[in-house]
Amino acid sequence: MIQFDNVNKRYESGQDALGRVSLEIERAEMVFLTGHSGAGKSTLLKLLTAIERPTRGNVIVGGQNLNRLRNSQIPYYRRNLGIVFQNHQLLFDRSVFDNVALPLSVSGCSKREVGRRVRAALDKVGLLHKENQNPIVLSGGEQQRVGIARAVVNKPAVLVADEPTGNLDPKLSEEIMRLFRDFNAVGTTVLIASHDLELIARMRQRVLTLQQGQLIYDGYPSREPAY
Ligand SMILES: Nc1ncnc2c1ncn2[C@@H]1O[C@H](COP(=O)(O)OP(=O)(O)OP(=O)(O)O)[C@@H](O)[C@H]1O
């Protein structure tokens, strides 16, 4: 589903952020991406979401080589992705419902279809009863769940999250991770960047570790024997 083939990224400043990264993520896998600050996690996600382009190498998603994507095609490509940010980027001048409906506004859905899809997404994250509220009155965990509902409202094949639990306490973080697991269980490919190693260990999923732009680990740490 996702393939990085010898990918290098050097920013215009001359900073090397990724070096010769190769990896493959199958459809319906759930994978964590970890590493210290500055290791290249966000850069890898930016290449996947076509916010940045690789300096060398290929990023292939769903059989599509992103190097061959024209700028005008990028919005269409992104419709297959759900993107969750740490600070959820909700708009506080409109309701929870309208925030979740945003990605549908460009897709030409009828009003009725928008209502159906938004309510289905809010139901999945347990916030149907808050659709008319302004997100500013919600707790941090609830705001993040609205961000997740917005990311999945288009039923994307791939869900990408950059530090989605960064501001949350351990219990709320676990709830958010459980949500990601639910979406994964119904076939969504999920890639989550996080530096919360304890939380990652509890999830017992595949882990990719970056260090100074190199992929230094790809495996299942929790399945290995403890010494
Ligand atoms: N737009 C940019 N221009 C120049 N250098 C950048 C840019 N974005 C990131 N970098 C640099 O690239 C390297 C990797 O950064 P990146 O943000 O991908 O790391 P990260 O693992 O996501 O870190 P964090 O956990 O702190 O978000 C760092 O040295 C960073 O300073």
From TrEMBL:
Record flagged with keyword Cell division: yes
Lineage: superkingdom: Bacteria
Gene Ontology molecular-function annotations: ATP binding; ATP hydrolysis activity; transmembrane transporter activity
Membrane topology summary: Peripheral membrane protein
Subcellular location field: Cell inner membrane; Cell membrane
SUPFAM superfamilies for the chain: P-loop containing nucleoside triphosphate hydrolases
Keyword Cell cycle assigned: yes
PROSITE patterns: ABC_TRANSPORTER_1 (PS00211), ABC_TRANSPORTER_2 (PS50893)
Any single Gene Ontology cellular-component annotation: plasma membrane
Domain ABC transporter residue range list: 2-226
Keywords: ATP-binding, Cell cycle, Cell division, Cell membrane, Membrane, Nucleotide-binding
SMART domains: AAA
GO biological process terms held by the UniProt record: cell division
Major place of residence: membrane
Function: Part of the ABC transporter FtsEX involved in cellular division. Important for assembly or stability of the septal ring.
Family named by the database record: Belongs to the ABC transporter superfamily.
Subunit annotation: Homodimer. Forms a membrane-associated complex with FtsX.
The protein's name in its UniProt record: Cell division ATP-binding protein FtsE
Biological source species: Microbulbifer pacificus
